[in-house]
Design brief:
- This protein folds into two domains: 1-40, no CATH class; 57-288, MetI-like (MetI-like fold, Orthogonal Bundle), CATH 1.10.3720.
- Helix 1 (3-40) packs across helix 13 and helix 3 packs parallel to helix 7 (157-180).
- By secondary structure, the protein is mostly helical.
- The protein starts with a helix and ends with a helix.
- It has 13 helices and no strands.
- It has helices spanning 3-40, 55-61, 64-94, 102-109, 117-128, 133-141, 157-180, 184-192, 197-208, 210-225, 229-234, 242-251, 256-288.
């Protein structure tokens, strides 16, 4: 048996070992995606005959509500992903070398990952409500004369705050491992050669942690673009997220096929946007390298 043949048999064996798990994942995910695509074109119709039709796509693509939902969801996802990663980097560098209380601080920073999104949204509302904690404190301290409205702001700032609060610990988890894998001698050598903190960060740390940063950007972007709970509880009332729009189309109007159209648009927008963001980050970092 030649060396090449041996490699082929080894790869075939690995593929067979992975087949039970990966095969089931592909089967289930493919079934769900295939059903959604077919339903968007008129098949698997729950209310009428199943036949090919482009009318569901035509109605949704012509809807101004869909366009505003796409722009809003992409804005929320972009801000949430970039801010979460931007905040996680300095914290990961700070916690890189252990110090007294660093383990406790790291655990506290990652605690939001354990809080369900809907619970976090309701806790946030208790803080910013018209007679919530923040307004009552400001009134008690005499900074304001009357409570002011902070809930369901029209720009989605509350949703973005919740997304960052929820996702920054996840970005920190990914980036901490990548940052800690950088050998101290490399950073010390750069410091001895006169590189400042910013130079060491964008010439050494960023390139060596690029994969972790891209993973964090993609996962956070996709999650934020498809969010429903934060938007329903704390989001603006003048615009809907894509997930909220999809639910409205199905639940309020009973249009399963049009809801499938929105679902496909949501998946494509989330995946495409996250990949573009990760690619842009990679190109930007490579251009900054000497």
């Amino acid at each position: 048996m030649t060396y090449g043949t041996s490699i082929i048999w080894q790869r075939a064996g690995i593929a067979l070992l992975l087949l039970p798990g990966v095969g089931l994942i592909i089967l289930f995910v493919g079934t769900v995606l295939g059903t959604a695509v077919a339903q968007s074109f008129g098949y698997f119709n729950f209310a009428g005959e199943s036949e090919f039709s482009l009318s569901f796509w035509e109605r949704q693509l012509a809807s101004p509500l869909l366009r505003s939902s796409i722009l809003y969801s992409l804005k929320i996802a972009l801000v949430s992903a970039t801010v979460s990663v931007a905040l996680a980097y300095p914290i990961a560098l700070w916690l890189r070398k252990p110090f007294a209380g660093s383990l406790l601080l790291s655990a506290l920073l990652k605690a939001p990952m354990m809080v369900p999104g809907l619970v976090a949204a309701f806790l946030f509302i208790n803080v910013i409500a018209f007679h919530g904690f923040l307004n009552e404190v400001l009134l008690g301290l005499g900074f304001i004369q009357n409570p002011f409205r902070m809930q369901n702001d029209r720009y989605g700032a509350g949703v973005m705050f919740l997304q960052v609060w929820k996702n920054m610990p996840f970005a920190l988890l990914l980036l901490s491992g990548a940052v800690q894998s950088i050998h101290s001698d490399l950073l010390d050598a750069a410091r001895d050669l006169g590189a400042g903190a910013w130079s060491r960060f964008h010439k050494i740390v960023l390139p060596l942690t690029l994969k972790a940063m891209q993973a964090a950007l993609i996962i956070i972007f996709i999650g934020a673009a498809g969010d429903y709970s934060f938007q329903v509880v704390a989001g603006p009332t003048n615009v809907s997220s894509l997930a909220q729009h999809m639910y409205t189309v199905q639940h309020e109007f009973g249009q399963w096929n049009e809801a499938a159209v929105v679902a496909i648009i949501l998946m494509v927008a989330a995946l495409s946007g996250s990949l573009l963001l990760a690619t842009f980050a990679q190109i930007t970092i490579k251009r900054r390298r000497p």
